[in-house]
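stuck on this chain:
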Amino acid sequence: MGTITTEDNSEWFSANRKQTLHSEWFLSHCHIHKYPSKSTLIHQGEKAETLYYIVKGSVAVLIKDEEGKEMILSYLNQGDFIGELGLFEEGQERSAWVRAKSACEVAEISYKKFRQLIQVNPDILMRLSSQMARRLQVTSEKVGNLAFLDVTGRIAQTLLNLAKQPDAMTHPDGMQIKITRQEIGQIVGCSRETVGRILKMLEDQNLISAHGKTIVVYGTR
């Protein structure tokens, strides 16, 4: 862990600036941890003291009801921050669970240390603010979908969104994703059986192909 100095700042967003935080300068002030797939990074209700940054892999952000039923709020990927809300108000508790969707490498930094970093380089805060604005937009779209789309429309929109994720794979007929029917149901708010029926209908309409967890969304490349 290094001492923060203005000289450290010189490498930040170098000649090939691509708005990325994969910077040795930033990561040198973080603790790097590895999490296996399906492990829990953040527990809902625990005290928020740390900001996370995904170096590799992807995670699911989800909430649970009193009976343990889960709803997936979003997927976050390489280059995304996690747990930023507690940065702006002390004493916050985690509002959701965060679970590794794949094996992950995550940089962790205390809120106090992160506040020191943004004094040296405000660009970090701009990056974080940009992500927060984008997530708010996605949340607004999701609320609109819940209000105005039926379950078929919500599932179709979810498949299109997943086809744009970094872990989607190119396929000759479109984009290939891997997701269970249960996970789709947790995203759109319906049963696994309903998801299965709608996937079959979309397949009959030659919009997708679905075999187990593998779904090809046609025409999305």
Notes: The chain has two domains: 6-146, 150-218.
